[in-house]
Write a structure and sequence with these properties.
single chain; alpha+beta; 3-stranded mixed sheet; 4 helices; about 45% helix
Length: about 120
């Protein structure tokens, strides 16, 4: 296995706030299960997702982006997973947040990726 440390910090995905929102809404509109949503969000940050064996640590995002995604999961789960804690998958397996980042910034500084 090859291990690569994400050293660019902070790394901001090259999308505007409105483009991020558009992509997130598309994910939630098309998904049938919360796992699909979570994987598709990770694919935004890690375009080489299919080559990744494991991610050690979590991407860190600005507080507004984290809350925005959490709210999308809450609404999605109310409809598709009413028996579950709404947004639980995001809270347990989603990104971390930091007030030190801009609202829509994403940092991979704390991630270590192991490729297949």
């Amino acid at each position: 296995m090859n291990t690569m440390t994400c050293t660019k910090a902070p790394v901001t995905i090259d999308l505007t706030e409105s483009e991020i929102k558009r992509r997130l809404h598309k994910i939630f509109d098309e998904a049938k299960h919360q796992n699909e949503c979570l994987v598709k969000i990770y694919e935004i940050v890690f375009p080489d997702w299919n080559r990744i064996d494991r991610i050690h640590g979590f991407p860190v995002v600005g507080c507004e982006l984290w809350k925005y995604i959490c709210k999308l999961f809450i609404e999605f789960d109310k409809i598709h997973h009413p028996e579950c804690f709404n947004s639980g998958i995001w809270i347990n397996n989603g990104f971390s947040s930091s007030a030190e980042l801009d609202d829509w910034e994403i940092s991979l500084e704390r991630c270590k990726v192991t490729y297949l």
